[in-house]
Design goal:
A: alpha/beta; Ribulose 1,5 Bisphosphate Carboxylase/Oxygenase; Rossmann fold; six-stranded antiparallel β-sheet; 9 helices; 19% strand; B: alpha+beta; Glutaredoxin; 2 domains; two-stranded antiparallel ribbon
């Protein structure tokens, strides 16, 4: 307050001049960017039209698609798979459904007449010498027992891909503390995954050579055969698969209606071939030629 | 579907390698390195481009491929034949009838070797297939021209946008 002049002087100058000028000077810089912004934003300002949501999957008209008999498709697939390791290449089926996007999905497992994968090693935890253990052995389990199995696993020897536990042995299994070894491998038996069972023999038998399938995005995909299969073997497998699928669909009939739209056969290294449901047609090559080794 | 029908299936039906092997040939086997270094490029190309066509036309002839891990190892084409065409039940021979060294050999030459050793008959393209190939070529040509057109337009739009931004002072060079 000692020297009020420097503060007062500008104020007095403002008061002396016209009021409109300083106001315009203050406002203009803020107006300019606003105007340019408005120009640029005019395009994006319009709200985007919301796409109408669909509750079914897109279906294509199969009239434009060339469909193949099984033998013809196999001839092409075997040619595309030339020189590959026959153990690693598999035939695959893709079944397209006419169905809702949201809703119950088909999920099941089945045993094909000619199993795709037969080398699944199964471990069964059941009291040695019991009826269940005998059943498991007979059904094809590799490892059966209790304490000896536990000791083996604790040492780190896990030579199996599936593990099943009999209900009576569950307490013993939990006491052994194997969750640390088996858990990360996804092998720990539990009732939730259906690997703690009463009837061991049936479960093991179903597991050997059985494969699971489920519907994803309106398509069911499953490996149905080894590359070395003959057309007849493939025919049986495809038939078995389709029959089970139709039964599944029929079971769901009261809740939701599903229809089979398209059946595609492909393999690991080949394009997909839409099947027309026939085994062979007039121009197909003899079946014998496709039966030999690759 | 267009791609499957017109490109992949036509590709496997026609072109070099579409030939019919004589009945004596009982097996074909190839051996080469896992990678192309050391002159194994032709062998690999032969497998990827021509063997599917051979297999499509001769589905009953087994074709086997062995790949080893040694770049300086052999690259061979082995052709097994039955002793006489009449005795089909004869045991499969263990030693190949013809063994061709295909190291440093382009794939077409490998095919020529196979044809000259076995006397295979090439399948000529039909007029219909030729027409389909011409259509594919025309389609590819057109799509390349279209791609160029779209690219030019896009680039022009982006350049205009950039210049506009520069003029507004939103970006500096």
């Amino acid at each position: 307050m000692a020297n009020p002049r420097p503060f007062l002087a500008p104020l007095s100058r403002i008061g002396a001049s016209s009021i409109a000028i300083p106001r315009a000077e203050i406002i203009r810089p803020s107006i300019l960017p606003y105007q340019t912004l408005r120009c640029a934003s005019q395009k994006s300002a319009a709200p985007k039209k919301k796409k109408k949501t669909r509750n079914t999957f897109l279906q294509y008209d199969l009239k434009h698609a060339e469909q193949f008999a099984l033998v013809d498709a196999m001839q092409y697939i075997r040619a595309f798979e030339v020189g590959r390791n026959p153990a690693s290449s598999k035939y695959e089926m893709h079944v397209r459904l006419r169905t809702l996007k949201n809703g119950p999905v088909i999920r099941n497992r089945l045993r094909l007449p000619h199993p795709v994968k037969t080398d699944v090693r199964i471990c069964v935890i059941a009291p040695p010498g019991s009826k269940a253990a005998e059943e498991a052995r007979a059904a094809g389990a590799v490892l059966v027992g209790e304490d000896e199995v536990f000791n083996q696993i604790k040492e780190g020897i896990v030579e199996f891909e599936r593990c099943i536990c009999h209900i009576d042995s569950l307490a013993k299994l939990n006491k052994a503390g194997l969750g640390r070894v088996l858990g990360p491998k996804g092998l720990m038996p539990s009732t939730k995954t259906g690997t703690v069972v009463n009837n061991v023999g049936v479960t093991v038998r179903n597991m050997v050579g059985a494969s699971e399938y489920r519907e994803r995005m309106g398509v069911i995909r499953m490996a149905v055969g080894q590359l070395a299969f003959t057309p007849e073997e493939m025919q049986k497998n495809v038939k078995a698969f389709m029959d089970t699928l139709k039964k599944d669909i029929a079971q769901m009939q009261d809740r939701i209606s599903k229809e089979i739209h398209e059946v595609v056969l492909s393999s690991t290294n080949s394009p997909g071939f839409t099947l027309n449901g026939e085994f062979k047609n007039a121009n197909s090559i003899p079946v014998k030629e496709l039966s030999g080794p690759l | 579907m267009r791609h499957l029908r017109e490109v992949r299936l036509l590709w496997i039906r026609t072109g070099p390698g579409a030939l019919i092997l004589p009945k004596e040939v009982s097996k074909i086997s190839l051996e080469f390195h896992e990678k192309i270094e050391g002159g194994h490029r032709g062998a690999k190309k032969f497998w990827r481009t021509m063997l599917p066509r051979i297999k499509y036309r001769n589905p009953s002839v087994p074709i086997q491929i062995t790949r080893h891990k040694n770049p300086s190892g052999p690259a061979t084409l082995n052709i097994f034949t039955k002793p006489t065409p009449s005795s089909a039940a004869a045991a499969a021979p263990t030693t190949p009838t013809h063994s061709v060294d295909i190291k440093e050999m382009p794939e077409l030459e490998v095919l020529a070797q196979l044809v000259s050793r076995t006397g295979a008959v090439e399948i000529q393209m039909t007029e219909e297939e030729k027409e389909q190939w011409r259509e594919i070529e025309a389609f590819n040509k057109r799509s390349e021209a279209d791609r160029k057109m779209v690219r030019e337009r896009l680039e022009k739009e982006r350049e205009d946008e950039r210049i506009l931004k520069l003029a507004r002072g939103e970006i500096t060079e």
